[in-house]
Amino acid sequence: MRLVAEKLCRSFGPRKIFGPLSFATEPGQVLGVAGANGSGKTTLVKTLVGLIRPSSGSVWLEDPARPGERVTVRDAHGRIGWCAPDLALYGELTPAENLEFFSRVAGRPIPREEAERRIAEVGLEPK
Questions:
Q1: pTM
Q2: Is the distance from CB of 20 to CB of 7 less than 8 angstroms?
């Protein structure tokens, strides 16, 4: 899936936080956001994953094999995620066990084998 943003903007009252912003990721690509404190990074990421509605513009997921078919990020359960700086993992659990636990808490449990496969894909398997 590709993450696509088109003329994405977010404001709070008269204060413009970001935008207009347009881009498209490639399948499997990891998107990083950097900037100074208070520059709108968290607001942008929350908008990209559907936790905050944009003031204008749009963001969606698109399967390259089905051009033009859009899935809103709010309807993309299990297809998009984000890792916040305040995320706390349990040190007594392995990376796969943490993923398995948090997926269960989110109401989308995955089998241990799936958690281990996903952890290995991003290079976080235990040493």
A1: 0.65
A2: yes
